[in-house]
Amino acid sequence: MGIIIKLMNVKKFYKQSRALNGVTLSMNEGEEYLIRGASGSGKSTLLYLLGGLDRPTEGEVHVNQKNLVDLSDEELALYRNRYVGFVFQFHFLLPSMNCLDNLLLPARLAGFGALESAEVKERVLNLANTLHVNHCLEKFPYELSGGEQQRINIIRALSLKPKLLLCDEPTGNLDSENSKIVIQLLRTLAREFHSTLVVVTHDPVIAESFSNQFLMKDGMLVLA
Ligand code: ADP
Ligand code: MG
Questions:
Q1: Is the CB of 49 under 6 A from ligand 1?
Q2: For ligand 1, is residue 14 a contact (CB within 6 Å)?
Q3: pTM, two decimal places
């Protein structure tokens, strides 16, 4: 399998801090990666650059042989919608829509026609079945437990079969038993959808189970 992600000397500076201080790495298509490191070491910043949520101060971020730095804001938005699924510690479901509408939102934003939309809906309903959240679909996010909200969030992230599944502290507010379940779930689903999985965490227990690991310190990669 080929390289899907290649970062070259990536730097991200803020007024007060050097969040990334020259990161070079590559990742293979369809594999699982873990990025760990202390709080403030630059993990989230790295993930946001991979996901096209932000731009580097310096360096190159190649995904599928395209340098994200060269994309316009519109092209970057398209990239995020069609290529990337995000799972964050805190879900970002829209409070004014029920869960099913939240799940179908990425397809609507993509402007899918009837056929593709029907395909997405079927996928989303199947996932809701697998993750035991069928009973949540007609409800609004505030009517769900934290764990249910998070499973809805995971389904939404996978709704368009993303090439990249990027997870930032996905177990940040779960106990260790549920953390293990969620990580296992993310890995299984990423495999099923042939997505490259990148998980960011400061939790050493989660880190144990990943063979591909990057360790960050002060905005730089230290060999794991
Ligand atoms: P981690 O996810 O490993 O905890 P972050 O990537 O969030 O680390 O942050 C790395 C450094 O960059 C920290 O010092 C943080 O304060 C700083 N930083 C992150 N985002 C911003 C921002 N939007 N504005 C200013 N500083 C930021
Ligand atoms: Mg972070």
A1: no
A2: yes
A3: 0.94
CB atoms closer than 10 angstroms to residue 150: 27
Q: Report how far ligand 2's centroid is from the alpha carbon of 117 (Å).
A: 33
Ligand nearest to the CA of 19: 1
Dihedral sign from CA coordinates of 204, 131, 158, 195: positive
Between CA 3 and CA 26 the distance in angstroms is 7
Cβ pair 155, 107 in contact under 8 A: no
Mutational pocket test of ligand 1: of 13, 17, 217, 221, the residue with most ligand atoms within 8 Å of the beta carbon = 17
Work out whether the CA dihedral 179, 165, 146, 155 comes out positive or negative.
negative
Is any ligand 1 atom within 6 A of the Cβ of residue 47?
no
**pLDDT tens column, 78-106:** 999 999 999 988 778 999 999 999 999 99
Average pLDDT (39-57) is: 96
Residue-range domains of the chain with CATH = 3-223 (3.40.50.300)
pLDDT for 224: 56
The verdict on the CB of residue 89 being under 6 Å from ligand 1 is no
